[in-house]
């Protein structure tokens, strides 16, 4: 398959008349200043974006948690209500629509932070991985790469037993969690990683037992209350606790990383860990603004995620690294456009190191954005990271397969109708 890009953002910068040859899901050649041939992609073609952190079922909360003033903790109670209503069939149907929305928004891979494992009350399904398999099938049918970040979740808080809803999340121990996860089998578009839900949900003596050959993610210092609880229980910040137990390595991705001490930042940097910011969710929940520039300067790899899917738009999450840091620092120019693109397309953080760049040998994942909409008309091409939205995505290729053409998803008919139907049924059940 051959594509001709009017403009393309290559590792060396933006070039014109770029021919991209694809075979067996890989890019086999990239040539600039080429004659028009093959599938014509007008606009700017970029590497596919990576959604480093998602809870697919949270999509059903969008627009349904704003009637009363509240806190993160009151929002969580409504989320638990939703979690109690899902089963493998309904989760598949909902996630299929969510993953289709992600591709339309510019994402070609997603790390699903998956802790909704068992039936109500904590009883395992006949297939202990039925909920994870539902996500695998949903991602496959929506045409997106999926890393199932299977999450160890053992406690309802530090020293607190899981409640009725949380028993669905728990395997009882880290060793039992590992035994279940070991039966998951990877395929061409499905990989398995690991996650520690948080230092609140996994006892300190179990932390080092949560491991993966690829990546390990954790909600880290998302809320000030988490830090306070950890300091009270262990006399350590969450980052210090992870370091004490050998978890803070270059395979760790700290999700949110909002309320870090200066020492925490240096620890993450020394370990060459990653940090995944989820700006639209952090705004939605009133979490605060994390120290993105300080983390990057310390050597931490940055990525972004849609988390609760309050908004699904790769461009919105990516530019927020810069815009939110401007608010916190009261300075402009915190990140270059190239740094933002690198963060937005960091597939290594979710176990797909071959994706995220337009060069020979890389995975054939790319997104074409129109430069002729009311948002993008007249901008410099590199300005798409500041001006474009998911509505400007015209064409998406994932592992060499056309998933979006002319702004229309090719595998899921009318994703908006799918989402509306499934979400209404969940709240009426």
Task: Give the tags.
single chain; 429 residues; alpha/beta; eight-stranded parallel beta sheet
Integer-rounded radius of gyration? 21 Å
What distance lies between the first and last C-alpha atoms, to the nearest angstrom? 46 Å
Instruction: Going across the biggest sheet, name each strand in turn.
Output: 3-2-1-4-13-14-15-16
Estimate what percentage of residues fall within beta strands. 15-25%
Give me the strand/helix succession.
EEEEEHHEHEHEEHHEHEHHEHHEHEEEH
Tally of DSSP helical segments: 13
- Overall pLDDT level: 97
Class from helix and strand fractions = alpha/beta
Care to count the β-strands?
16
Describe the model.
The protein is an alpha/beta fold. 31% of the residues lie in helices and 23% in strands. The protein has helices at residues 72-83, 88-104, 130-142, 174-181, 224-234, 238-244, 262-271, 279-284, 292-297, 314-329, 337-344, 384-387, 415-428, and strands at residues 2-10, 13-23, 26-31, 39-47, 49-54, 107-114, 145-152, 190-196, 216-220, 252-256, 274-277, 301-304, 366-369, 393-398, 401-405, 408-409. The strands form 2 sheets. An 8-stranded mixed β-sheet has the order 3-2-1-4-13-14-15-16, with helices on one face. An 8-stranded parallel β-sheet has the order 5-6-7-8-9-10-11-12. The longest helix has 17 residues, at 88-104.
